[in-house]
Structure formats: C-alpha cells, structure tokens
Amino acid sequence: MLRPDREAFSAYAYRLGLIEVPQRCFLYLMRCERYTKVGIAADVEKRRAKLQMANPFPVTVARKYGFGDRRYAHLAEQATHKDLAEHRVYGEWFEADFDTVESLVLEIVDAARELSRKRRATMKAKHTELWNRYLADQAFRAEVHSA
C-alpha cells in the first residue's frame, strides 16, 4: 500500500499545471517629457536605468502596478497598448494626457487582477479535488507515484 506522499503529489500537480511558480512582474508607466511609456518588467528601476542610458532627457517611473503572475501583467500591457493605439508615437511610447492614460490603465489592471484571482481560485479547487482523489483512490495514488 502506497502511503500519501505530498512531494510526489505536488510534482504530479505541477506537471498538470495546477501549481505554478509565481513570476512577480510590474506594469509600469514611465514619463519622459510629454511622453508616457507603458511596459512590463520584473525590475522596474533596472528597466528605467536602461531607458535612461539611451535618452538625454530624464526618464521617471510615474506608476507601477504589481502582478503575481507575468502573464496578467502582459495581458494588461497588451490591452493598454491597444486602447492607446491612436496616441502611439513609437513602440511603447504614447503622447496622451497622463491622467487619461492612468485612468485607462487602472481599469485594465483591475480587470487583469480579477482574471488572475479567478484563475487562482479555479486552480486551487482543482488541486483540492485532485488531492482528495489521491487520498481516497489507491490506484490513482500508484499512478501518481509512477509518473
């Protein structure tokens, strides 16, 4: 009889995508003169320093919004770029009223964070369901251990 082994189960759940390694990431708004850059980075200050090296004008971090999962920061970035397309100057730089940009970004960030919360809740429920099956079903437990 195989005894429950949380480590073996966790490895199995990870392979199924029910456990993820979080990748903290930020959606940021940087300012340079009258332009706003919307991007993502794990280290916003390091990103600002790189941008500053190639720019004679001061680049400042105006806002940053944290995400526990890079994919949702990326979704928020893409949605923001799409909504600001008519204000695009070049690449990820936009020329628009900063308050308007910030207001738009706040709505998008809230929506992306809500999607993230729902995904985590779904994953947690599936993980719990699978764990209960693992505890109750000897044949499934053997399958997990052999995987």
Highlighted features:
5 helices; 147 residues; five-stranded antiparallel β-sheet; 5 strands; alpha+beta; elongated
How many β-strand runs? Answer: 5
| Main pleated sheet | 5 strands, antiparallel
- The residue-averaged pLDDT reads 92
Task: From the alpha carbons, calculate the radius of gyration and give it in angstroms.
Answer: 21 Å
Structure description:
There is one protein chain. The mean pLDDT is 92. The protein is elongated. The chain has a domain at 25-109. It contains five helices and five strands. The chain has 147 residues and is an alpha+beta fold. It has a five-stranded antiparallel beta sheet.
In a nutshell, what does this entry contain?
The protein is of the alpha+beta class and 147 residues long.
Topology record:
Elements: H1 6-15, E1 25-32, E2 35-41, H2 44-53, E3 60-67, H3 70-83, E4 88-90, E5 93-94, H4 98-136, H5 138-146
Helix pairs in contact: 3-4, 4-5
